[in-house]
Amino acid sequence: MINWLKSQETITEKQVKSGLRSLVIDGMCSQVMGVFTGGAFLVAFALLLGASNKTIGLLAAIGPATQILQIPAIYLVDRLRLRKALVVLTCIVGRFFWLVAAAIPWLLPEGMRVPVLLIAIAVYFGLGAIAGCAWNSWMRDFVPESIMGGFFAKRMAISTALGAILSLGAGFGIDYFKTQFSSELTVYSILLAAGGLSGLFGCFFQMRIPEPVMAPVDDHGLMSLLAEPFRKGNFRQLLVFMGLWSFAVNLAAPFFTVYLLKRIGLSMTWVIGLSVLSQLVNVVFFRIWGKLADRYSNKSVLTVSGPLFIISIAVWPFTTMPDSYFMTIPLLIAIHVLTGISTAGVNLCAGNLALKAAPKGRATSYLAVNSLVCGIAATIAPIIAGFGADWFATKQMTVDLSWISGEVRQTLPAIDIKGLDFLFILSVIMGFYALHRLLSVREEGEAEERVVFRELILETRKVVRHVSNVSGLRTLTYFPYQQLTKILPRRKDEEDVDDIDV
Fold first, then answer.
1. Going by C-beta distance under 8 Å and a sequence separation of 6 or more, which residues neighbour residue 92?
2. In the 3-class helix/strand/coil scheme, how is 475-497 assigned residue by residue?
3. How far is CA 196 from the centre of its chain?
């Protein structure tokens, strides 16, 4: 085992291919852990333990808050120069704490359950932050840059597909087995334990991924390393965008599940079913976005996928008028489809943009500072949102449309905003401002948004053509998008680019 944790001077092509396969399997194990220990399941588990809105906000803030540990992690990585060993050992210890969280309902009285859950999650994310610092630097040197976009798209697509299947099965399982056990907490405890074990199994495949020897780093001190990314103008602009984007997303995202369970009153099967729908769309579009990112640039993809994600948040307040109505389910389906399309591009390209912007061989401090900035923003946002959710709970703004015919007056609610709706609106405003700041970031090979949008439609058309022989469905990809693409000038060099399958 010790030899497996050492770095290598030379890595053969065969070892690279084997390492990439292990990297995919590790991603699958991590996805299983993430599905069973996060999202709707973790929120529901916390609510059953007695968590409040403030606690849910704090729960969402713990992970980002621990990114402060990226600072000492930089020192550890540069001094130990054993990134694989650091990743594997911290992951083993950190993921064990999901087993601790799973045991909470059986070992602790009610008054201690929520605090201990927060502590267990803090330890997991804290060690994960240290692992993440070493992991980012390791992957920057190991994965060939020429296939980086396509490979990570493939890895995320496979992991997401697995996660979607397991999410759906777990959602049905919870609704069924909670009637078979004396306590609903039993089902969630089993899920958390299964997630923790899957994460520990993934550590075995981490050990099988080769680690290149780190390039020599000039020893200018920790503070100098932390300041260097801010001195680089383009990377500084990237940090501004990433921080603002992280803040905007985390104002709203932690409360989507709360909104579905409490405001709309959906069952866990419906909540997970919508999540699975989004993940299945993710799987399809990871490959599309990955291809476009390699062909044009990560920034170009973000300028298209980012606005789509913000629009999906903007639709949430219209799912209730002021309560559930005949358009609630159709709107929720549309939101989750649009979220699946957009987050595939955002999740893939935001990380890759930072990876490519960081100088090879000296990426540790750059990527750590990027994680730290995002972590600070993502820590502050859900805490503010948690307090804001309680404050907005008693606030409501209504705009009605009235039709008067003689003495008959009919009134229809045009806009009805209350509670969490206000947080979603604030998130939309911040999100569009963050995308405005993205325009200041430079990346080699970037293309205009309309070029990427046109290619997105063309790639989507190919997918629909391959999965369906229903002519009506295929026609949807031709109008009105086909007419829009006709007015967009096509550069000759773009016409000559062939599809590249990764």
1. 200, 203
2. HCCCCCHHHHHHCCCCCHHHHCC
3. 19
The tens digit of pLDDT for each residue in 22-34 reads 999 999 999 899 8
CATH topology of domain 24-392: Growth Hormone; Chain: A; (1.20.1250)
**Residues with Cβ within 8 Å of residue 479, at least 6 apart in sequence:** none
Q: What is the pLDDT of residues 321-347, one digit of tens each?
A: 777 878 889 999 999 999 989 888 888
DSSP state of 50: T
- Collapsing DSSP to helix, strand or coil, 398 comes out as strand
pLDDT, tens digit, 9 for 90 and up, residues 203-247: 999 998 988 888 766 556 667 777 778 888 888 888 899 899 989
Q: Which of 266, 46, 48, 103 is nearest to 171 (CA)?
A: 266
Burial class (CB in 10 A: 0-12, 13-18, 19+), 461: middle
CA 74/CA 111 separation, integer angstroms: 38
Q: Domain ranges in the chain?
A: 24-392, 448-502
Residue 399 phi/psi, 5-degree rounding, is: -125, 120
pTM for the full predicted model: 0.63
Closest to 266 (Cα-Cα) out of 344, 203, 332 = 332
